[in-house]
Amino acid sequence: MPKIEINPMTRLEGHGKITIFLDEEGNVENAFFQTVEFMGYEKFLIGMPIEEVPRTVSTICGVCRAVHFMASLKATDEIFGVKPTETARKLRELFYSAHYVEDHMEILYALGLPDFVCGPTASPAERNLIGLILKVGVEVGREVLKKRFAAVKIMEILGGKPTHPVSAIPGGWSKRLKEEERLEILKLSEECIELGRFTLKAFKDLVLSNPQYVELIKGDTYKVITNYLGTVDENGRITYYDGTQVFIDVNGKEIGRFKGREYLDWIAERTLPWSYQKAPYLKKLGWKGIIDGENTSLYSVGPLARFNVGNGFDTPEAQEAYEEMLAFFEKKPVHHILGYHWARAIELLHCAERLKKIASEEDITNPEVTQKLGEPLGEGVGIVEAARGTLIHHYKTDPKGLVTDANIIVATTHNKGPINVAIKRAAQNFIKGGKVEEGILNLVEIAYRPYDICLACATHTLPGRLPIQIEIYGKDGQLIKSLRNF
Asked: What is the pTM of this model?
């Protein structure tokens, strides 16, 4: 059977490929999104002191560092039976909001928007971040990057480092915020708000004003009908650091909600023989395969899922943007996956507004940022909304607090099935009669970019059915041991 490979996939985090199989007429019979790297953090965390885990898992990814840091920190809180002080919680949320601004900005400008600003079938030499900057103007590009640095600076002030934070303490935060630092963050938050406003305006001017792009956004080619999972606060609004996880079905009806360890009642993971990445599904619906539609047990997470699950935002400008997007699509849930980009831009503004709101509270300089710890209780689950979607860290420890088991389910893992559906649908729509050219293949790749894939984050469990083999050789070159499916 003839096949086409997109290898490597472009403009994503990590390494993957797409394999497309054609029938005798040259039309697409099947397509597979394959993850070809393996990280394995679930394995080498075993034996580590649980209080060291947040700083370690932040190194899973240079972009996603804050989300793994925060989910594992929340799990560590539970293991020691403590909750952060009110001040520590605010500092965590302040830090997390800055991460969202920086992360969403990177994904929109570097990975998603070049397809629209430069053109979906433009030359790869033009269809990238540099091409985008040349289109909008170098001065504009410089200003956007400067405002991104404002968010990174806030993360550095709060987290101790601009990249991999080190401020994790179970039940608290390792460093109190000084008044001069609060005022600096307050000033930097204004730059983040300006970035959020500019990004939304740019999305409207460069994408929504183009009838061809609107047709793509509202059409069926980039439409994947699934269930959705997101986190809401006590008022049902979108939230990121803490809240209740809610599932809705393909028609928007609530299926159920959970917190903490209850995720095990709702989520099951399917091993796939052709990928290092598992495919989660709704446990109570059973595995139905990688299909979308009314009968699917797949679900999606991320900005569009949160838009579908939540009933808006708790800040004025983001709420106004939410209502505009809702009016554009006319109803929820929205299954048009290019809407992820728009929802991401709204969240960028929302988190910038949250930055200013929290930094305006003078009591966040309160010195009470730590708690006295109890003995390790043996198990903890931390759940946050990562920029890419719902993130779960689950750990078990021995009485000394050393990790004995770890389970990490990240957003790209949750989205494995929907991404595969999206890629296959785009391939079937654009590849006809065996005709393939670079521009057509990018139209296929556009199908996964809304999900903001991070494959470094998504590959920590070793599926037993994969034919993995490791050979160990001595200094003399002789084979000592061969491990298969270890």
From this structure: 0.93
